[in-house]
Amino acid sequence: MTQTTGRNIASVSWGDHLTFGEADGLLDTQDKLKRRMEIWKDELGAGVVQWRHGRRTRKGRYYTAKNYRRAVGKVRNNMDWDDFEVMPNMAHKFGMEAYLYVSIYSEGWPLARKKVREVSHHNAMHGQHFAWQSDFSRNNPQYVNVDRSGELHQWGVLSLAYEETREYLRTDWLNMLKGYDWDGLFICLRTEARPMDHADQFGFNEPIQRDFKQMYGRDIASEDFDVQAWRDLQGGYFTKFLEELRPELNGTKLAIGCARGDVLGPPLGNATLQWRDWVSKGLIDDLVIDQSSSQCPSLWHPLWPMHRGYGYVQNYLDGHNMPPLVEHIGEYNDFMKDHDTRLYVARQWKERSESEEAELLTTPGVEGLAFSAFRFDNPGPLARDNWVIGPDEEKIEVTISGLRLG
User: Fold this and answer.
1) Does residue 92 fall inside a structural domain?
2) Which residue has the higher pLDDT, 384 or 280?
3) Is the pTM of this model over 0.85?
4) Containing domain of residue 306, as a range?
């Protein structure tokens, strides 16, 4: 493969490594992490490591179906070393930057009834019979995105129209950064939440209704209204969140990962991605495009495959209203070339291709590519494709930290 030392990103979902990895790909010891990090630098050309620990500080609750409690307990891995201390220091010794990886739309959901789970579930492999939900979301359902009726919640996705929501996320992330030597914060706009039935289904929370009425004189809960203005308003709350967060980072870099295009896209809807404002206002240092919420980046399992929704202004799943990737990068570069934000292209959902990667790395405006460390480190589990977590009385085809469950 074409290598460009220091240009690329190694994206590490540590929970996936601990649960589904093998040998050094488990990353369950410091020595294993050191060996793989050296390889990420040398063979992936990584100059940045994005480290996703999971729900380190965020309190929440697990919901489990009958006979799955023991299986869920086994997938919780607690190391005797502090990854937040070790990982940045180790990355710096290899001359790489360390970014803390957080997900903004990952508050989880309650477990559905059995009859519902049989036909509608996050992932039949390991996400059908247990679920997790943050305490904040569970105790404050009013802050979760709602539909026009105000009754249906988009569990997992908080509305940034609320000051309380923005403060909750900001405080959580700043606490995670505090006391550690992180170079940057990477905010991923992907979600594992159940997709909308249609792309403008959610986004009718009280502050959005209030602000739209003040700006345009229309009640979005009961009257016809300018749908694009409403989409832009929703996108503006995320920009406001960045404006509030940026000064509090005190020099720590800020990166955003999102779908390609001008809307959040599947499964999150048509809210506007105001990336041009993020760049022109100097709110972000890195922008990683071409992410997907419809497939796991580590294991490539389809997420909520029975729900895809419709009505998207742009849809990366079928290419609707989107130019080819290289052509689209040209549009980004035309805008970004006079600014300092670095542009990366996500490759976690693509098979490795020397020719495609070489083309992207020579495309004007592209700083580097982002790769999945799990997929790079674990060819054995990928080939076996056996990550099903079954009930307690059945053989569980998952190896965790070298132990066979069952």
Assistant:
1) yes
2) 280
3) yes
4) 8-404
